[in-house]
Amino acid sequence: MHKHRPFVKPMMVVTTSGYVVSVLGPYLADSKNNNAGILNHMIRNNTEEMRDWLQDGDTFIVDRGFRDSSEMLGDIGINMEMPCFMQRGTSQHTTQEASHLRLITKVRWVVESANARLKRWKYLNHVIPNTQIPFIGDYIRIVGALCNRFTSALSSGNEEEDQATALKMLHLSKRKNELQEFVESNGSGLSNRTYSEQKIDAAGFAQDFPKLSDSEIHQLTLGVNQPVCDATFRITSICAKWPGSVHDSRIWRESALCQKFENGEYNGFLLGDSGYPCKRYLMTPFLNPSTVPKQKFNAALCKTRVIVEQTFGILKRRFSCLQGVLRTTPRQATKYIVACAILHNTGIDQGDIVESTQVQFYGGNNNYNNALTGDGFNMHNYIVDTYFTCVK
After folding, report:
1. Is the dihedral of CA 88, 90, 91, 96 positive or negative?
2. So what CATH class is 8-167?
3. Per-residue pLDDT reduced to its tens digit, 225-245
4. Per DSSP, what are the bridge partners of residue 128?
5. How many CB atoms sit inside 10 A of residue 311's CB?
6. Is the predicted pLDDT of residue 196 greater than 60, yes or no?
7. d(CA 335, CA 338)
8. Domain extents in the chain
9. For 113-164, what is each residue's pLDDT tens digit?
10. For the chain, does the N or the C end have fewer beta carbons within 10 angstroms?
């Protein structure tokens, strides 16, 4: 079942609308049970009375793993279409071959989409224990039946619109390579000509080229993903537009929340890990705690900051789309993440996730005001000296 450790695999037949017609198996995933071998076995033994619902002239859209089933399907009047192979001695497909390959891939995408629907059930998206192997086929049939009954068709559902789309795809698949014809018809050496780079005057040359502001470029190229939560698991701020390569400190430095803390608009403390800078309002662990009080400070900070990790866990349990890869554009992904955070807070308001927890902050001495006016290290030392030096 699992892509990286395929011990067994089912075989599923779907229509162009995504309707699951049949689920066979599971079969042992070894050299004897390749895709073509499984399909040939299904046809030869008329599994689930397959030949009764197959009609002469039907077409199977398959991948290259079914190439050895062509003869058997042909014997019962079934056409088979699959991506073509590159001819021996060639380095690329011809225009006709490439167009045919794209056409088959566009039609066959429905199979992958149907498989993705099945994997929305977390159980089928993870490694399954060996003890469950006898029941895998039944599980997939049940999930397939639920998908057939309660999910919409993968096609538009409008017969005329589907036919128009099919005709357009067929038309595009038969188009000639106009660029190739242009190169071949404009000089015998044009196809092999080298190129050189030179500066050109863009004035009047790229008038229709899109113009983007700095903020628009920022939004397009950088995505947000830095939530801040309180002790009740409520997300009080979220930034979900940055790619994973950007350091946490930079995301924080350029966030609106950071500016508000810097300007004194907010009063309080934030807890962060060692990836963030130490500020008078942002407490981070000591990198090399050399004394017992500093070690106790680090331990207390980590125990308190675990709330944010627990919040991540709650989000992922509540919204399964956050557990894996979001199969959408980066811009849409940021909207999904923010929407999940809003719904998460709504759940807390309705008492649907966790109960609120009261957190008490113990008062200190007059040195607290002095620490507020200093840098983060002053506040660090103040807290350690006040609350952890005498802790047994």
Report:
1. negative
2. alpha beta
3. 678 888 888 888 888 877 766
4. none
5. 22
6. yes
7. 5
8. 8-167, 228-388
9. 888 888 888 888 878 888 888 888 899 999 999 988 888 888 766 778 778 8
10. C
